[in-house]
Design goal:
By secondary structure, the protein is mainly alpha-helical. It is 65% helix and 3% strand. It has helices at 6-27, 31-46, 48-75, 79-93, 102-117, 153-179, 195-202, 206-212, 216-245, and strands at 122-123, 126-127, 134-135, 138-139. The strands form two sheets. Strands 1-2 form a two-stranded antiparallel sheet. A two-stranded antiparallel ribbon has the order 3-4. Helix 3 crosses helix 5. The termini are far apart.
């Protein structure tokens, strides 16, 4: 376990253990699973302000992409001028280059604590008793290829988790394409239909690969967190994102200091 995350992981462990004890009379063996889902949703709820800031920044970056590309083409051989023009564009839009990245970076410690909690066999030097609970008879500390193997009840439970993750990844990729449509008139990237194109299409499914090598508890956490992210992005896009994605000026803006074309 990452040492500097040990204390928050220990605190989260006691919270989930407390939830499990409270839910056990009503849910029995599913109490630990419900506690994992509940704590994951509670943490994601606390991170909503950061998530919304990241979404706003990503949409602004997508909207400015054609203008940024035009600046790179015009001033590609003048790095200092290019930096000035890009900085001026960001100032006019009230944003920055890191607007969509910084809020995501700030979320990393919180989400790392959750992931470490559900994959660590020990917490605070003691066995992680959460992993001794089960889902449909499969211990939450079990890995996909351990125990009875994939052709068993254990394998079926894991395959169900992988199928949920794959479906959520597909929906997330589809929503991302809607939120960041390619700029019209932009040529396709060289090799986009070759190896790099396959890599880009496979990248959204990296979460499924991570779950395949993690305990079942971590897989449940990943399903819950990804489902929350998808719902959050979809709701934001439906309510606010489309209006923010429209350009503020119907006519392309001439970079500062550039001569007006006839």
């Amino acid at each position: 376990m990452v040492s500097f995350l040990g204390v928050p992981v220990d605190a989260a462990y006691h919270v989930v253990s407390g939830f499990t004890g409270i839910l056990t009379p009503a849910l029995g063996g599913l109490a630990a699973v419900a506690a994992i889902i509940a704590l994951t949703m509670a943490v994601r709820l606390l991170l909503v302000p950061l998530s919304l800031r990241a979404l706003r920044g990503q949409l602004v970056q997508a909207r400015l992409a054609p203008q940024l590309q035009a600046l790179r083409q015009r001033y590609g051989r003048q790095p200092e001028r290019l930096q000035r023009e890009m900085a001026a564009l960001y100032r006019r839009e009230g944003t920055s280059l890191f607007a969509g990245f910084t809020p995501l970076l700030l979320q990393w410690p919180f989400l790392s604590v959750m992931y470490l909690l559900f994959r660590s066999p020990q917490v605070g030097g003691k066995p992680n008793t959460l992993l001794s609970h089960d889902l449909f008879g499969v211990p939450l500390g079990m890995h996909w290829l351990s125990g009875a193997g994939p052709a068993s009840l254990q394998g079926a439970v894991f395959l169900g988790v992988f199928a949920l993750l794959a479906g959520l990844c597909w929906l997330s990729a589809r929503l991302a394409r809607r939120m960041t449509p390619p700029a019209t008139g932009t040529p396709a990237a060289p090799g986009g239909t070759g190896g790099s194109g396959l890599l880009l299409r496979a990248l959204p499914y990296l979460t499924v690969v991570i779950a395949a090598f993690a305990p079942l508890a971590a897989g449940i956490y990943l399903v819950t967190s990804l489902a929350w992210s998808l719902a959050e992005r979809g709701l934001y896009w439906k309510t606010l994102g489309r209006s923010q994605h429209r350009p503020r000026n119907p006519q392309p803006e001439v970079p500062s200091g550039a001569a007006q074309l006839p």
